[in-house]
Amino acid sequence: MTAHIENLDIPAGMEITGELPDGAEKVLTPKALELIVDLHRKFNGDRLARLEARKKRQAEIAAGKDLDFLPETAEIRNDPSWQVAPPAPGLEDRRVEMTGPTYKKMTINALNSGAKVWLADQEDANTPQWDSVIQGQINLLDSLNREIDFTSPEGKSYTLAPEEELPTIVVRPRGWHMPEKHIRIDGEETSGSLVDFALYFSTAGQIQIEKGRGPYFYLPKMESHLEARLWNQVFEVAEDTFGLARGTIRATVLIETYPAAFEMEEILYELREHSAGLNAGRWDYIFSVIKNFRSRGDDYLLPDRSDVTMTVPFMRAYTELLVRTCHKRGAHAIGGMSAFIPSKDEAENKAAFDKVRDDKSREAGNGFDGSWVAHPGMVALCKEVFTETLGDKPNQIENKREDVNVVAADLLDVKSTPGSMTEQGLRTNVSVGIQYLRAWLEGNGAVAINGLMEDAATAEISRSQVWQWLDAGITLDSGEKVTKELVERVVAEEVAKLPGDDAGWKDATDTFVSVALAPDYVDFLTLPAYARMP
Question: What is the DSSP track for 344-381?
Fold first, then answer.
């Protein structure tokens, strides 16, 4: 069933072109649509200016300028007096956070997982298909009203656990770079970020306030404190529009871009009334390292993705600085995604659980207050590991990590990463990237591949590494030089191994090849992929 556009009270200047799923009127309310219009008119110009600033910095890096801590904001970093707001209701204890998209079945499973927080993902684990964008908002609203259930094709029924057992919901909207082409205002495409934010804040977010919590968000892909300032301005307008106290909205920022690692304190400062801490977004961070320094020679060439662990020097520097920065300012530091998922094979299952235990033990020992898992089956393990460190305490913000002294050279030390550039690594990048893209284009943003729960960050690493290896003309362990012809041959061979006929893989393969072999690097794989979506 579908809702009818004529039943909506659409503000002047707004055009909605997408077909509406049944129940869309519950989230496309007059207040929500008016807020989208207001935020677009106030902030879209600033958003586009921030995106242009990214390009300018990228050009400077390509010309040889290194990233560094900003001299113009040294006063903020050197001022010991300021702190972020204390933890908001429902965000005091974040020792295990379940991540996943807002599809109906996954919404119920995530809420029933036993986690302290559910990252309700409308970004990398989701797809921006119009139906997913709107249906995800409906599912969030229905879950808070306890009006959600799901029956699988096999007849299995999914319903919510009791209210007191459910985690706090934190929504991740799309990044500043993603448009929403199905909503236009004054003839312009809107921002996916602002659309996702406004719809949740205006509907489900208000119910969260009634329940004693609030509209909480995870902010992705930011590259500077000025982008955080823009979000803070958005929050202030939304709170004022709805007559809410300053700080009702809270946001955790993903430090998942290379430039943002040099501006962590400034990002916390800009959001301090609204801040809920920082998260170490490890997969996108690796992608961002390649993206930003892709043309800077051997010092920034990364080995196979599997070799880039959290213990290599540049990754360890980034995570230790994040904990130090957060705890210095009274904020939560949340660890990265563990993508391993349970397996029916006993040996594989034990290996996966051992890796998750090692990963979370390292994070808890380093001072993190909690961490992410990608599958409900890993929630109990993550909770157990962090409880071994935290005990009954909700967090370890008091662990200031004053022993940490990370300088710019430590963050930039990519060349010390051990590992190899292998033919198998190239094949894995090609195969995983194409498999993920097919699922993404078909509307599924969280995909189990080779025992890992993959999202868009994985595909970004895969195609970026192929591009970088090709651009640098590296020689693999097999003795073959990476050339366009080699990549094309590997693509053909890897697609031939995948189930189904070649025609079913054509869109995904064409999309992957178009960016992996492009003469000029494409900033985000999801932009040309989104253009292929209706």
Answer: SSHHHHHHHHHHHHHHHHHHHHHT-SEEEESSGGGHHH
